[in-house]
Design a protein that fits this description.
The chain has three domains: 127 residues, 2,3-Dihydroxybiphenyl 1,2-Dioxygenase, domain 1 (Roll); 144 residues, 2-Layer Sandwich (Nucleotidyltransferase, domain 5), CATH 3.30.420; 66 residues, 2-Layer Sandwich (Nucleotidyltransferase, domain 5). By secondary structure, it is of the alpha/beta class. A hairpin with a 4-residue loop joins strand 2 and strand 3. It binds cobalt (II) ion.
Length: 357
């Protein structure tokens, strides 16, 4: 952990008019947030590894209101991230540096900060915040394979040892039929809400199928574009793989409803594909299935159990499950380049449709 510039604080009279220049530049502006103890309303604008903090006073008595009255709008403070805030403050006090407050304050979201008085910092109001010790890996999970899709922001701490350690920060639904219009703006909002910049993303985990032809095509095209522009790796995750992951047994059949009285199935042993993904009639699968079956399909579980076969129902993995399995694959080096990313429709008719499109 090193020192870095966390953000630049800018005092403004109106957030609405001040943020527009950044929006015109194509940057993403976070939603507005009120910090009661500082009597300000603020937005963050992630810029590369750092951010701009636009501060609008919520009362005449606020520090920002007084600053604007005296000096007009403009740069208010520079915020630096330090490895150990308590040690830094102790050190500065010992050296006779003037601080605005003697104590370290705790702000929104639990971050700890202190201000160094401009008289001790060359006329600059210097904010010091504590940096995170080790950065967690940031993954975006995307599933557009079904009628309804979803998007997830996931974080894997450095000490994570299994997919269960991957934290799903937020998962949001994507309405069916609107994937192409929704995906990019929803992702931008998701990142802004959690103050994650696009550059902070370590990888994209995307459901490669099986599923809807149009949905997958849109999802994969968006991921290709994003990953290429940002220079980030893609992990391609089969939903069957994610379903099998939900089961605990060593040797597992994963099954998903494919409509038309058919199923998508694949067999895995300890997470490794042992029988290729394929399409099979329901009745035929119920008849022939050996060993454990894991599926999202309740009716299939009932049919299998009616035949005395072992079956478990799991919830649809969605973007969260895709992110979890994606993290495991990423760790194993199983990522693909944007050019290599391919949809896996399984249904031949869909594949033909795709090649003509
Ligand atoms: Co600040």
């Amino acid at each position: 952990m090193m020192f870095s510039i966390d953000h630049l604080g800018i005092a403004v009279k109106s957030l609405a008019s001040s943020k527009s220049i950044y929006e015109k530049l194509g940057l993403t502006v976070s939603p507005e947030e009120v910090v009661e103890q500082e009597q300000v309303r603020l937005v963050m604008v992630p810029v590369g590894d750092t951010r701009l903090e636009l501060l609008e006073p919520t009362s005449e008595d606020s520090t920002i209101a007084k600053f604007i009255a005296k000096r007009g709008e403009g740069l208010h403070h520079v915020c630096m991230k330090v490895p150990d805030l308590a040690a830094a403050v102790e050190n500065l006090k010992r050296e006779g540096v003037r601080l605005v407050t003697d104590e370290i304050k705790t702000g929104a979201g639990g971050h700890r900060y202190v201000f160094v008085h401009p008289s001790s910092a060359g006329g600059v109001l210097l904010e010091l915040v504590e940096g995170h010790k080790a950065r967690a890996m940031v993954l975006i999970g995307i599933d557009t394979s079904g009628k309804e899709g979803s998007l997830a922001l996931a974080r894997a701490p450095q000490q994570a040892s299994s997919a269960d350690d991957v934290e799903i920060v937020e998962s949001i639904p994507l309405e069916g039929g609107t994937f192409s219009a929704q995906l990019i703006p929803q992702l931008a909002e998701l990142l802004a809400r959690h103050e994650v910049s696009k550059q902070d993303i370590d990888a994209f985990a995307v459901a490669s199928g099986p599923g809807s032809f149009t949905g997958l095509r849109v999802g994969l095209a968006a991921v290709k574009g994003l990953a290429e522009a940002l220079g980030k790796p893609i992990v391609s995750v089969s939903l069957l793989e994610a379903v099998a992951h939900g089961g605990s047994d060593m040797r597992t059949w994963a099954a998903l409803d494919a409509g038309r009285n058919e199923l998508y199935v694949a067999e895995y042993e300890a997470g490794v594909l042992t029988a290729d993904e394929r399409l099979i009639g329901r009745a035929e699968f119920v008849e022939s299935a050996q060993g454990k079956v894991v599926t999202t399909d309740v009716q299939l579980v009932q049919a299998l159990m009616g035949r005395g076969k072992a079956a478990d129902v799991v919830s649809h993995p969605g973007s969260a499950g895709v992110a979890r399995v994606g993290w495991e694959k990423l760790r194993a080096g199983l990522f693909v380049t944007p050019e290599e990313l391919e949809a896996n429709y399984i249904r031949r008719s869909d594949a033909e449709l795709f090649s003509k499109a």
